[in-house]
């Protein structure tokens, strides 16, 4: 069964029982971060039980040497790994000389809370040591959004039944390792350890990539809330710096340590300025004190929630689930730095190399567009624009020429990080998502200028790729795309995957159409890009030749497009008829059996219809949904949201809700039995979409109008969400009976609701 | 360019120049072995240049932990590695205290000879040491066929320009490693080192598999051909045993060491008897002395050549090439032990795990049937029969039931050793080769009894596999086999590979037909097997339902069977039009590009037509040859031989000869630039077939008659070969003008030559 120990709560993730079996899962679920850095909810004090220690700095990675069974030409030599960073949170605690370790003492009244409204993590418990001492521990921790290189800890101990000595030994440890290392290598080298009075810093660098990072700490103490100066003992080892402070306490006393930490890296500073900058940060933090840092944090999160919150009435677990998803997405990516992106596990784990998948364009951009300023989504697009050269190199490695670009399946710096031929070389539909991201962004924001300034170059590189990747089939008398893997990774190396062919054709057409528009409206940009890309009019005509004659597999009998050429040779048995002991098939079946089965991992033909819903009739959507969804096993975290949205759009609310439930509490209820490794961050954006685009039925039509077809699951009383649409904030509340719109902005908005156009004026409620 | 330093010679492989760049290649080419043990031609004395040390014991392997990029369900945990064994040949040589090392001294008059007629390896050279001493070295080495656990070395040094001291330090080193290790582990543990007077032995065991091996040596000396007793100094280290012998020489003296070595293993002895058995072996060898061992060796090889030799007149390089192939095949496998098989590199290198591929059934069995007693081929079949249980387990791992058997792609002990899903799980045509091997054997030897006694069980397991692996395609209204890789590994995960479907259908039909015959002729065996396999009459009917309705992709336009369903979607551009710098494509192109290209690695549809030539008309063969051969890049060592044979059978002698040349001297001329890693043993059987079945046009028709359609390449004056056919020896000599048959045996033979039946009586020449 799924884990079910998280206490339902509207605004917090709460755990009320200490169970060593849940420690790793909770480390993931209670993670905190600020988009630039983040960490798993590891304990500050020592813990000898099972744990995955993880603290991460955005953009700092390590190129681990690729491990393969059999080398194939074209594989990348290296695989950029998410990198566990030096530990700044650690505090060894001793009570009368005995180490505090929750794995080795009696724990009572344990409570952990991740307060999502205000952005902090707390923990309290009563511990009885083997030696008899009882203590009450209360901790609070945050990673500051305002001071985005700073974290802070408040750690209090009450001497319940004894008088004696409490030793706090805060430390920085740069001798950390990755669990996920191909050859058990060390990724970090310690360069310098600087000590000082109640403060210290370690300068380390990553091997190979040579990112330099200074990790600093600053500590102070109170006894019964009164500031206390304590004698410092210093212990410097090869890769760590530890201070020890002994405090004499009487029974009932409360001794507290404040530990401020900071990461600064060579992404933002010169190497020789890092130590100083790290000291500056912890100095600033300690001067503000924990309380003020906490107040700043509350303000920062209030600002985020104002435009991002979704309120669900009548279902507290659903409420907790959706807020958890929104909270984690914000912890992972704030949108202020175009060098960063949204890793599949965010700052909650180290599994999966790279930070960026097509998930960003296909799932995450809508969330960030809907809840933040347009600049945030633009930064995500610029990330790819800045990596265009690498995408061209990547395509060259695979034999493409003339500036054709293939974006990597997984990347950190633009280079490919994946090494399975059927994915790396063949799951090329990702290239289409890059363009869909631009299209989606331009429609939503109306910022067409992004195309002449940046997007057009990407569109040309991708169009060239599709043009070269298709070939003419004499037997079909059309262009085909052979040897691909679609979004359904349960089929590999298939021919004419509908989704891939559709995107290929569309990418070319959209590129040519955009070229025309840029030519007319931005002639200078047109000339610049035309020259830079060495484009000719003949070339675009050749592209169109392919696009206009693209082949799509279609079944007359079923009246549906086929997922790939030979799909109907398979035995089509609904997934519901599979016995429970065979599920999930990716754990129970051998790979070949999965491949030749009809079972679909995640939306494939339907992914295309989700992207381009406007281009299909409702009847087409229904037919394809009814053909493919029963064959879909939803074994990707990205699957249920798309199906939920499509089901809602064809008025199948029970199915839409069923699929929504599978995505909303995926990690909180640990459906996939792997939350101990980290959370599924990118699919959380899909959950947001399931409400806003699914139940809320929100679209932006191609002419830039907002469209709503709101529905409500019968399990809920109401739900409301907020949309940042072209710099105005629109609030939508859907009841069983009506929908209410409220606009914060400066000018009225025409909205199409259930096919009727309404006008919403600022600061007035409109009920439909 | 290819290496071209081997001196043409009818009976020997000869090298006359010492070049450090050729050392590793020569180590492979000059390898010696006796089917039970073998070794690369490493120098006895120290060598500090590039070398691949390798000495191997048949059947002794190590299960190396699998290394993969991404784990797939069904992958084997371990990979049986060919195992480098303790070194018994080593002799450190010192001249007046200076080490002899060909990498560090001046070498003149170097000559190395592998005498294939008599089965020994010799080396001679003049070395001038940095310290000025000149010596003349002559060595001879053999691995005895008669005493198949024994090797012997004669190593003579003439003091050319000095008087002084020569130190011989023969040793056994059990501290050896594999180059091909996934995790740089040691594979061996040293258990015991036993010293003695001029003899010693080390007992070691392999980790995990716990094979125990004793490696012994025995040494003696002569000075100017007179026996010499020399004082022995002993040095025992953790994993090695070294004796040192100092001999005072005057200028012109010849000092000689004889070193006899032996491997004995727990495959043949109890662990506690190994040391004693190894001593016994080297004692026997030393009593026989080197000369007698050499005489025995000449006799053994004379016996082998009597039934295996192929003589080519008018082309000395072709003569050398074919004898090299026949020689290496015999060194690799003698056929006396059903636990052994034919590794792809034999005893010439450690690359590729496992010892057994489908090469054995598809390529090697005809050679061993043609040149040895029927028992040898029978042992190869029994190897698979004995591994049927493992094949059933292997199929179970992939989801098959009811005794369905899938033989492994690569194996040592019956367990799968390969770990690429597209090969391990999908290159299932190998299962058909198991049955083809039986069919071929029974036709050739007329030993039908093999089927009721052994083969039938294998046939049932394989038929069950095909029955379960096919599925009914509603759209084709026939049975299809989805997701396979054919012999052409340049297509992966394709549907309805003609070759696979053809074999599947044939395997079922042959099984049912054999069942019927066994039922009639061997009722007791029938009952036994029927019960053991829990077979029912209904079940075989269900098999036939699949076989009788098997789908085969066919093109009306080209009038050929298609390699797979979607083959005609590819751009069909002859390989000849590829630019030279793109060849070989497996080194120049990324894997996806290869997969979606039309280029064929090795015979695929044509492999089926080669196996079942009788079942296709000559016109069909021509059409398929003309369609597929131009698209074939022959980048497998197994490709040219099949094409050569088919070309000959459709009277395309220039093409047949062109393809023959590519296979005959593949290693001697190092076409693939990899002979330094070892020789391509299994393809050598293909070379033999190219002459006997190709130019010689030999077949055994289904009614058990010998058929010949001999032709001769215009480059040759004549060629002759020998066939052991049902215990009679038939010699065939083909001239430009005529063919001469000579039979050694007891009863006349009816042979069909060029469609006319002739009668050959024992000891008479018949000329056609």
UniProtKB/TrEMBL annotation, chains A, B:
Residues 15-266 form the Glycoside hydrolase family 65 N-terminal domain. GO terms for molecular function: carbohydrate binding; glycosyltransferase activity; hydrolase activity, hydrolyzing O-glycosyl compounds. The active site is at 489 (proton donor). Substrate binds at residues 358-359, 601-602. Residues 698-760 form the Glycoside hydrolase family 65 C-terminal domain. InterPro entries: 6-hairpin_glycosidase_sf (IPR008928), 6hp_glycosidase-like_sf (IPR012341), Gal_mutarotase_sf_dom (IPR011013), GH65_N (IPR037018), Glyco_hydro_65_C (IPR005194), Glyco_hydro_65_M (IPR005195), Glyco_hydro_65_N (IPR005196), Malt_Pase/Glycosyl_Hdrlase (IPR017045). Residues 323-689 form the Glycoside hydrolase family 65 central catalytic domain. GO terms for biological process: carbohydrate metabolic process. Belongs to the glycosyl hydrolase 65 family. This is Maltose phosphorylase. It comes from Lutibacter profundi.
């Amino acid at each position: 069964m799924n884990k079910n120990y998280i206490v339902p709560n509207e605004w917090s993730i709460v755990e009320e029982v200490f169970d060593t079996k849940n420690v790793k899962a909770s480390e993931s679920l209670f993670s905190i971060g600020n988009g630039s850095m983040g960490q798993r909810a590891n304990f500050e004090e020592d813990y000898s039980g099972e744990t995955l220690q993880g603290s991460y700095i955005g953009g700092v990675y390590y190129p681990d040497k690729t491990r393969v069974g059999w080398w194939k030409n074209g594989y990348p030599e290296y695989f950029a790994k998410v990198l566990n960073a030096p530990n700044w949170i650690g505090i060894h605690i001793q009570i009368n000389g005995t180490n505090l370790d929750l794995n080795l003492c009696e724990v009572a009244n344990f409570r952990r809370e991740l307060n999502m409204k205000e952005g902090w993590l707390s923990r309290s418990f009563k511990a009885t040591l083997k030696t008899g001492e009882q203590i009450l521990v209360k901790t609070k921790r945050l990673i500051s959004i305002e001071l985005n290189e700073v974290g802070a800890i408040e750690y209090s101990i009450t001497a319940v039944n004894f008088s004696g000595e409490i030793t706090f030994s805060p430390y920085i440890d740069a001798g950390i390792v990755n669990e996920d290392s191909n050859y058990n290598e060390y990724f970090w080298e310690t360069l310098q350890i600087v000590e000082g009075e109640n403060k210290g810093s370690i300068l380390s660098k990553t091997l190979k990539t040579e990112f330099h990072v200074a990790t600093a700490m600053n500590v102070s103490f109170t006894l019964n809330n009164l500031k206390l100066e304590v004698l410092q003992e210093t212990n410097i080892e090869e890769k760590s710096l530890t201070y020890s402070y002994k405090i004499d306490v009487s029974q009932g006393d409360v001794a507290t340590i404040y530990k401020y930490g900071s990461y600064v890296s060579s992404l933002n500073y010169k190497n020789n300025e890092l130590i100083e900058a790290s000291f500056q940060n912890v100095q600033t933090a300690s001067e503000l004190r924990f309380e003020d840092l906490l107040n700043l944090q509350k303000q920062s999160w209030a600002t985020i929630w104002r435009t991002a919150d979704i309120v669900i009435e009548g279902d507290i677990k659903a409420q907790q689930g959706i807020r958890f998803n929104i909270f984690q997405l914000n912890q992972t990516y704030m949108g202020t730095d175009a060098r960063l992106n949204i890793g599949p596990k965010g700052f909650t784990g180290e599994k999966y190399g790279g930070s960026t998948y097509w998930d960003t364009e296909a799932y995450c951009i809508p969330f960030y567009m809907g809840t933040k300023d347009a600049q945030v989504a633009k930064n995500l697009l610029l990330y790819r624009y800045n990596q265009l050269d690498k995408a061209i190199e990547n395509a060259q490695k695979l034999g493409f020429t003339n500036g054709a670009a293939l974006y990597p399946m997984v990347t950190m710096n633009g280079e490919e990080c994946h090494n399975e031929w059927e994915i790396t070389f063949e799951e090329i539909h990702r290239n289409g998502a890059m363009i869909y991201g631009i299209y989606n962004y331009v429609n939503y924001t109306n910022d067409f200028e992004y195309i002449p300034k940046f997007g057009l170059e990407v569109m040309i590189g991708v169009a060239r790729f599709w043009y070269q990747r298709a070939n003419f089939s004499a037997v079909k008398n059309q262009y085909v795309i052979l040897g691909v893997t679609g979004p359904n990774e349960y089929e590999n190396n298939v021919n004419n995957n509908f989704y891939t062919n559709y995107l290929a054709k569309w990418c070319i057409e959209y590129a040519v159409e955009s070229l025309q528009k840029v030519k007319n409206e931005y002639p200078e940009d047109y000339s610049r890009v035309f020259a830079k890309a060495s484009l000719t009019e003949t070339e675009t005509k050749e592209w169109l030749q392919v696009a206009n004659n693209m082949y799509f597999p279609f079944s007359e009998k079923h009246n549906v497009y086929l997922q790939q050429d030979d799909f109907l040779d398979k035995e089509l048995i609904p997934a519901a008829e599979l016995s429970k002991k065979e599920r999930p098939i990716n754990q129970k079946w051998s790979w070949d059996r999965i491949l030749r089965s009809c079972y679909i991992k995640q939306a494939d033909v339907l992914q295309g219809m989700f992207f381009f819903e406007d281009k299909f009739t409702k009847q087409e959507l229904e037919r394809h949904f009814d053909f493919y969804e029963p064959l879909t096993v939803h074994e990707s975290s990205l699957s249920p949201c798309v199906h939920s949205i499509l089901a809602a759009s064809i008025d199948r609310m029970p199915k839409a809700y069923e699929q929504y439930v599978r995505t909303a509490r995926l990690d909180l209820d640990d459906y996939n039995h792997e939350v101990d490794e980290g959370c599924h961050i990118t699919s959380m954006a899909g959950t947001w979409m399931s409400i806003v685009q699914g139940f809320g039925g929100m679209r932006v039509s191609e002419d830039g109008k907002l469209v709503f077809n709101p529905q409500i699951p019968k399990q809920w009383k109401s739900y409301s969400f907020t949309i940042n649409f072209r710099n105005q904030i629109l609030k939508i509340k859907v009841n069983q009976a009506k929908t209410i719109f409220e606009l914060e902005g400066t000018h009225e908005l025409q909205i199409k609701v259930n096919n009727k156009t309404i006008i919403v004026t600022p600061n007035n409620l409109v009920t439909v």
